Amino acid sequence: MALTLADVHRIAHLARIEIDADAASDVHRKLLAIFAMINELQAVDTTGIVPMAHAQDVMLPLRDDAVTEGDRHALFQSVAPAVEGGLYLVPRVVE
Amino acid sequence: MKWETVIGLETHAQLSTVSKIFSGTSTAFGAAPNTHASAVDIALPGVLPVLNRGAVDRAIRFGLAVGATINRRSVFARKNYFYPDLPKGYQISQFEIPVVAGGEVPIVSPTRGELRVRLTRAHLEEDAGKSLHEDFHGMTGIDLNRAGTPLLEIVSEPDLRSSDEAVAYAKALHGLVRWIGICDGNMQEGSFRCDANVSVRPLGSDTLGTRCEIKNLNSFRFMQEAIEFEVRRQIELIEDGGTVVQETRLYDPDRHETRSMRSKEDAQDYRYFPDPDLPPLVIGEDWIARVQAAMPELPEAMKARFVEEDELVSETARKLVNSRAMADYYEATVQAGVDAKLAANWIVGDLSAALHKSELDIAQSPVSPDQLAGLLKRIADGTISGKIAKDVFDEMCKVSASRSVTLDGQTLVAKAGLVSGIVTADQIIEAKGLRQISDEGAIAKIVDDAIAANPAIVAEYKAGKEKAFNSLVGKVMAASKGKANPAQVNATLKNRLG
Amino acid sequence: MSPYTGTVAELAAALRAKKIGSVELTTALLARIEQAQPTLNAFVTIDAEGALEQARAADAALARGDAAPLAGVPIAHKDVIMTAGLRTTCSSRMLADFTAPYAAFVVEGLKNAGTVLIGKTNMDEFAMGSSNETSYFGTVKNPWNVAYVPGGSSGGSAAAVSARLVPGATGTDTGGSIRQPAALSGICGLKPTYGICSRYGLIAFASSLDTPGMFARTAQDCGLLLNAMAGHDARDSTSLDRPREDYTRDLELPLTGLRIGMPAEYFGDGIDADVAAAIDGALAEFRKLGATTVAISLPNVKLSVPVYYVIAPAEASSNLSRFDGVRYGHRAEKYADLNDMYRKSRAEGFGAEVKRRILVGTYVLSHGYYDAYYLKAQQVRRLIADDFSRAYQQCDVIMGPTAPSAAFRIGDKTDDPVQMYLNDIFTIAGNLTGAPGISIPCGFDRRGLPIGLQIQANYFAEAKLLNVAHQYQQATDWHARAPSGSEL
Ligand SMILES: [Mg+2]
Ligand SMILES: [Zn+2]
Questions:
Q1: Of C329, C380, C418, the CB nearest to A34
Q2: What's the pTM?
Q3: What is the 3-state secondary structure (H, E, C) of C94-142?
Q4: Distance B248 CA to ligand 2 centre (A)
Q5: Ligand closest to CA B195
């Protein structure tokens, strides 16, 4: 399952990272080297092994249903690139 | 060719918690933009989700109510995609192991009768924010107040065969989530949203056709229209030699049509994986037992009880359990000492009609259960006839609408929204003199007067015209302003005309 | 020796005894930092004004006699950690102008302990790197030889502590990002058990691996800082609710009977001869202290690197999606539409290594590859964790080199990501399992660059790790060696 240059463009699109055509082949070359290393895993027999998603085998803690947060939008929006009337502005979204 | 429609619904019910699913921000609707958007909700760097127990509690309640399996261990996963109303670039949802698996919802199909719609699953997830498309210099405004609101996504199997069944299912589900108190069901505010997966196939085929997902069905009427449009579109497309393309379509209620959603066109690859910030959700037996113990009697069980114990006909019982408020109203009326059948018939009949006419919910009924019971008791004890009762009922409604009434020179004023008990049936009956006339002497006098005043009709009767008798009864009732006891009038007339 | 370059313990004692004042100390260290900054580039932000204000408050508390345990001791935070009101950049263009609106749990903890925050340290961008060469703010230099890297990703903290600019600094360790730079910079670096220090306020790289920890010159100092940083935090669902402990409580216990596991896999090919010799020397010292060595095997540990380079990028690809130029961070000047704004903002805001890892992570999670990569990696992660549980039935701690070699030259590995990744071959397993590990200095190579000994132990055995390290430091003086020019 060798990663192709088309895959590079596909995942770059999914990840919303612009990669121009020149850079793409260098990225491709480096990713191929990384995947050559990663592909060592394919040789391991993992039949019946339970995947380990967390470092600790614990249960999810739960919080009580209570309002503990107030309005801090002025502070939060002080670092925003574009706001108006309390709204974050983005290029027009077409539905 | 004959076609069969196949529909499955995905419903997002907003859970009625006071705070968000993963943060302590208020879920109250209608706040100024981004004032209910905390660090977690706007996904500042370094913040982490902490699950709201209340959301899980409601999911368990739903699962038990539909007879589903509550997964003792379920997993939150990230659904990754970029959209400006999705601050983290992923939605925390459940993917491989949802909290609720299976279950079924009973509905009545207009064509197939009673059936049980199977549920695939119900999972907990967070809502996204809102994009405001009105013009900000060619930009879109993003309000994240709704981001992180808890949702239960309820997915049905493709068990529905018509728009009618889809609507019946959606209404049953809508009734159920409100019945068990997990969702306010407010469709205008988006608290209960349905997407429909619609496909068609030749009648008799057992493979599924290609489906389209229709979004934005924010009323039952739109759902009906959208599905009907979509079914026609797909059939015409196939009959014209085309093929249905699997896609997401948006219902446009102004144009009464569905159209392809360009923003979703680009093939999605959500890259689900277990959220490393959230260990597995473990639900203990004791928690499930507690939720079960607090579970209200469910509509199906209540309906069966009404049929069994109150001897109601099935259709009437079903209407009574349409909503928890309706059922509660009925039970309160019976509790006040009224015959169950009489109460049930009045509630599904006159009361429902009056509510429908004034576009009110039963919770806002102008006549309280106690008031209705007071009225029905007067029918039962012969104080008024059923016909007069309708007038008294109308009067009660009017009193509530005007919020005041003058009776016996005394003006009673209803407090806003609190009309219960302001005026009793007895007060109206007394004030308007509607008490049924049962006194033999009084009835005899009215009958005699009527005979004297209508010699021609009497002559007709005597000549053998049976119909003329009814005409005389009418005259007597009119003269008594409807108050004379009809049975006594009949008997006295018969006697006098010998 | 300068009174200002003492250890955390020494400075805390001197402050308490009023031999020095915090303002005096802070001023002196600020001067050292200013002097060293052009050479080492250890800091991204120096907050002289804020530091002096905190120092004045510390002096007041010390004068009143109600000072917290580390009152007046200056420290620095790795710039991946949110410091309220202070610029927090993650050494990325993406956050170059970002002021944190809240403070991380560990920041609050150290503040409550009385420490004075002097600045934010340079790092590999978004903590992705092993050399500190991926920082938007430039490479950090190794104080032992400025032609060499200090290690990474917490290279700025490591260099700052190594050069005696601060006695202690925080770091984060996702694949070795505390232990490896500690080794390469000749100081102590502790990665605690996953879950005992809250991740709240850490800009996430790989959530299931990210662990806050610290750098200092002695094991004792690491314990003192850990006491201030550990604790349950309801804002992090992976934070563990455990009784509080004093991590310095066992420092003085003798090592008699200590069983040291020596994994065959840590002593094989690919290890620099000087490193191997230094580790052998350290083990000999431990035997003198009463410990015994046991040969153990961790057969799957060689798979740590490939497992890590699936799991960490996968989690990172998702964690870094929030940097989209909408609510904070870099937004491109020019763009055609929404998607173009995303693509350009992220292409400009992230450096090459960050983008590479996002792409790797996106690929391994994408449709059709999830089972072969992500699920597989999680299964092998379990196999690796099982290796360690088996090993701890035979030994109390596991020792070996922290990194295969001492520091490498700046620029040597920048064009070969895989070679760079292999630098973390001995540290990554500790992140995959979540168990603690410490790196302590144990010698120098032929070029005079420091070598680190990694000591690992089972979950929650921090007090044991610190005890073992402390006893070694009582018997040796590697930890007391300072790079030339750092003594004033
Ligand atoms: Mg869905
Ligand atoms: Zn959903």
A1: C418
A2: 0.92
A3: HHCCCECCCCCHHHHHHHHCCCEEEEEECCCHHHCCCCCCCCCCCCCCE
A4: 14
A5: 1
